[in-house]
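Hi, here's the filled form for the chain we discussed.

Project: internal
Contact: R.S.
Residues: 242
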Amino acid sequence: MHMLLGNSLWNLVVQSDMMTKFILGGLLGVSILCWSLIFHKYMTLRVKKQQMLDLLRALRKAETLQDVVALARIHSQTYPGYLLVTQLEQAKILLQQAHQKGVLSDQEISLLEERRYQCIDDMVYSQEAHLPTLSVTASVSPLIGLFGTVWGLTNSFISISHKQSADIVAVAPGIAEALLTTIAGLLVAIPVAVAYHYLKGSVSDLEQQLYGISERVNFIIRLHLLQGKNSDELSLASQEAS
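And the returned structure, exactly as it came back:
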């Protein structure tokens, strides 16, 4: 541990060639970028997950369309509130058509289903932004470190051939310097890979919660359609649709 954190490791970095320093600097920069993304994503998903839980609890108590409209007004500025308001806006359009024609076709009801699924897909896609960066970093960093190791070993073997000596005292520093980039690549890749899978799982949980909210709202809207009421109750929600 002392060797890993003390002067010995730093001396290897200082004494390394320009290619090794370039690789180490690149890995350090990528690590800083990834940890910034991880922290930002973690905090964002944490807030949105709490918003989802609050809305889900409230929706369990909602029995009528008036209750859903009231929730849409309260949560309109939140992440799940966007889905709620958008779904009510689409339902309002269908109810207006039903009021004019007297009946809704199966195709029009299916269109409402497709639009709410598309809204969920768009919302999930927005939360997956930058996650590919973490995935690529976790996959490529060890390879970059391995490239630095091969580069360093090649230089070490060339140096051995010039000195015409395989003395361990002369060979060891070069090999240690070569392995330095592999260590750096793994130190970058392992925590980023763990964070990527954690955040990916959080987005999947968010998607399931969105579907839960959408299904509950869709159930109440369908009851409203079966009762044959008009669309006046949806006007307040549609004003806040984004």
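Let me know if anything looks off before we file it.
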